[in-house]
């Protein structure tokens, strides 16, 4: 593999091959340009306004119990609060690389030649991809607070909601600046009009940003997934950030004893009809010989009102599902980046 040639900044007149540390500046310029937009091939988004052309790379579902802690009896149903969908743009970027801006390198015969596409891909574009997944500018992490290596900007928030209304949160962070800027070491290009070698400008180096985007799609290095475990196919993956977990309160059977007492008052009104039948005999001393006998029937109606008061006590025991104060882990999400 050919190495890019550069002019030593110390003297300005000596041409040497770049080593890996010399390429840090090229990578820095390309990644800073890559990070300048939140859209475009290679970038991530959480619940974007439009998903046209984007690839779903995973989701996180926030759930909770519909009832407060201690509520009973309850069912096993849960409420979905929000679904957070993660997308990556894996389309293709338009390139405008001309021979006039191609870096020059030494070939196997020690001749200075413009770098071919494959040499560009295998050399500083590949090392830029390695820089990217190694927490370089433009990379992403999923964690509650900003990472401390350099400057990071939040690009989205996901939540784990509690019954009480509180939430745990995590954020998708993107690195916007390194802790320190690498030393300026520029590659050289061949200028046809003068037949000389000149340092490339930052603007010319940025022309290779679309190439970086397309290589992310082509070889997968720098693509992301959001899921609980590392993908088992498609290369080697490493976690970027922390695990975020959806939790909710547990439900369990619990026995209860309940007592009930109350006083009831009711009024009852009805009409009664009673029948009475008897034989009436009357005896009286008199001077005679007559005994009289009388038989008859009499019916009488009675209307009455009754008011009664009753006080009762009831004690019952039962077992039912109850929302507990303890919580359970429902699902988890991790951000994975492909590194090989």
How do the helices and strands line up, and which of them pair or pack?
Layout: E1 5-7, E2 15-17, H1 24-35, E3 44-46, E4 54-64, E5 79-89, E6 104-106, E7 112-114, H2 117-133, E8 140-143, E9 151-161, E10 167-177, E11 188-191, E12 196-199, H3 202-206, H4 209-219, E13 224-227, E14 237-239, E15 244-281, E16 293-338
Antiparallel strand pairs: 1-2, 3-5, 4-5, 6-7, 8-10, 9-10, 11-12, 13-16, 14-16, 15-16
Helix pairs in contact: 1-2, 1-4, 2-4
SS element count, helices:
4
Main sheet specs:
4 strands, antiparallel
Mean pLDDT: 87
Radius of gyration: 44 Å
Spell out the helices and strands N to C.
EEHEEEEEHEEEEEHHEEEE
What is the end-to-end distance? Answer: 19 Å
Model description:
By secondary structure, the chain is mainly beta. 13% of the residues lie in helices and 48% in strands. The chain has 4 helices and 16 strands. Helix 1 crosses helix 2, helix 1 (24-35) packs across helix 4 (209-219) and helix 2 crosses helix 4 (209-219). It is rod-shaped.
Task: Identify the notable features of this structure and list them briefly.
single chain; 340 residues; mainly beta; three-stranded antiparallel beta sheet; 4 helices; 16 strands; 48% strand; rod-shaped
Summarize the model shown:
This protein is mainly β and 340 residues long. It is built from four helices and 16 strands.
């Amino acid at each position: 593999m050919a190495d890019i040639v550069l002019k030593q900044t110390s003297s300005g007149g000596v041409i040497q091959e770049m080593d890996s540390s010399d390429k840090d500046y090229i990578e820095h310029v390309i990644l800073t340009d890559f990070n300048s937009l939140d859209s475009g091939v290679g970038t991530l988004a959480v619940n974007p306004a439009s998903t046209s052309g984007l690839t779903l790379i995973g989701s996180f579902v926030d759930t909770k119990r519909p009832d407060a802690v201690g509520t009973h009896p309850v069912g096993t149903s849960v409420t979905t609060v929000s679904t957070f969908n993660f997308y990556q743009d894996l389309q293709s970027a338009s390139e405008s690389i001309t021979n006039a801006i191609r870096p020059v390198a030494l070939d196997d015969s020690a001749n200075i030649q413009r770098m071919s596409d494959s040499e560009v891909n295998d050399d500083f574009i590949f090392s830029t991809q390695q820089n990217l997944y190694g927490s370089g500018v433009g990379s992403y992490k999923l964690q509650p607070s900003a990472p401390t290596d350099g400057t990071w900007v939040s690009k989205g928030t996901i939540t784990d909601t509690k019954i009480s209304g509180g939430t745990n949160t995590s954020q998708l962070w993107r690195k916007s600046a390194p802790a320190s800027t690498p030393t300026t070491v520029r590659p050289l290009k061949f200028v046809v009009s003068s037949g000389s070698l000149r340092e490339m400008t930052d603007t010319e180096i940025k022309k290779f940003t679309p190439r970086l985007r397309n290589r992310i799609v082509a070889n997968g290095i720098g693509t992301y997934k959001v899921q609980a475990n590392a993908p088992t196919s498609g290369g080697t993956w490493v976690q970027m950030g922390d695990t975020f977990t959806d939790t909710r309160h547990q439900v369990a059977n619990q026995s209860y004893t309940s007592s009930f007492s109350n006083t009831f008052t009711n009024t009852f009104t009805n009409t009664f009809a009673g029948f009475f039948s008897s034989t009436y005999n009357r005896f009286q001393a008199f001077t005679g010989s007559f005994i009289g006998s009388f038989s008859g029937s009499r019916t009488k109606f009675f209307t009455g009102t009754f008011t009664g008061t009753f006080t009762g006590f009831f004690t019952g025991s039962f077992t039912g599902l109850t929302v507990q104060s303890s919580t359970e882990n429902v699902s988890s999400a991790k951000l994975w980046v492909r590194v090989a």
